[in-house]
Amino acid sequence: MRKMTVKDIELKGKRVFCRVDFNVPISKGEISDDTRIQAALPTIQYLVDQGARVVLASHLGRPGGEVVDELRLDPVAQHLSNLLDQPVLKADDVYSDEVVSNVNSLENGQVLLLENVRFHPGEKKNDEELAKQFASLADVYVNDAFGAAHRAHASTEGVAHHLPAVSGLLLEKELRVLGEALENPDRPFTAIIGGAKVKDKIGVIDHLLDRVDHLLIGGGLSYTFIKALGYEIGQSLLEEDKIDMAKGFIEQAKEKGVSLHLPIDCVVADDFSREANTKVVPIEEIPSDWEALDVGPKTVEKFDEIIQDSKLVMWNGPMGVFEYEAFSNGTKGVAASLARTEGYTVIGGGDSASAVEKFGYANQMDHISTGGGASLEFMEGKVLPGVAALKDHEDEVK
Ligand SMILES: Nc1ncnc2c1ncn2[C@@H]1O[C@H](COP(=O)(O)OP(=O)(O)O)[C@@H](O)[C@H]1O
Ligand SMILES: O=C(OP(=O)(O)O)[C@H](O)COP(=O)(O)O
């Protein structure tokens, strides 16, 4: 069901509690990647332009319900102020009498950022009292925090039950792009799944098998599948207890008419390190005391052919240990292939998003999700609590 958005309601003069995901990497007070702040700008700017009185809330890191000075949001407020080209007021508490008075003094178009909501023990517990306190600060609730939409916390879920609750523009876009890919994809539809563990991707593979035309599997998790096919994988990552499940997926793919592709060659190393000796071998010839840490060039070529013929490509999880130069070519090659294809490209967040950024292809992708865990849960077909709590489109906001 489509959710109401900020575009569907009157905002002038209204106090708006807007949950954003400003969980950005900060080191010694410096923000090293502001992608998530940039991604929230259209909504914040829209609220400002409409003359709303904007109260922003976000978490940063996992402070565990207490104040951790390094996780204060002051550098974010400063950076946001530069991006918006207007002052951003910063509260030193999550909720207090002073916060209430600061909010009540806001003029139309002014922006106030609350302190890291996870400093309050009630946030992660989805405490009713805190949710009501948040609600008391505003007339309208806006959720634009896609990256935290899989969390049922006081500022992402609880508060939505006490105010007219709508989605922001980023959340709306993420749901539209990911939702259309899963419900009404352009075909051929190809999904590429990588990353370390089968365990983490079971739900996604299961859900995708009913939807995709091609499923390409690389990364650490692919070696459990290779083992399931009866090949020896040396010291490569193996989840012994998932071999039967991998066999089941291979069977299901056949039954459902999905073409499932595993690596046909790989880069093996005699040690998990930057300095290891490496060589490229066919997948059926992994030496017993070596481990596969990347897909090989023939695999990249095979995956590329399929990607170039696809109308829609969705990618989640790296093809190898891309953090090390020697094992980055598979991930880099797939990123380059996505950059070249005329099909619509969607990158699940997390490591695939970092890889695309690192290799310089970010601006050639059609959509890079701002949520790792959230996009994974969405791709598993799970309901995201932060989304479920918002008003369905048919409803009227009074
Ligand atoms: N063949 C491999 N062997 C060991 N680790 C791998 C291999 N391929 C990928 N990885 C590691 O998997 C990690 C990413 O896994 P994961 O967290 O599941 O991905 P994502 O964040 O994209 O969901 C990366 O740190 C990468 O180094
Ligand atoms: O960075 C986040 O998650 P992600 O790394 O899975 O995208 C979100 O801000 C959620 O943070 P959390 O996993 O501490 O709840």
TrEMBL record:
PROSITE patterns: PGLYCERATE_KINASE. Its EC number is 2.7.2.3. The modification Phosphothreonine is found at residue 299. GO terms for biological process: gluconeogenesis; glycolytic process. Pathway: Carbohydrate degradation; glycolysis; pyruvate from D-glyceraldehyde 3-phosphate: step 2/5. One of its GO terms (molecular function) is phosphoglycerate kinase activity. CDD domains: Phosphoglycerate_kinase. HAMAP family: Phosphoglyc_kinase (MF_00145). Belongs to the phosphoglycerate kinase family. This is Phosphoglycerate kinase.
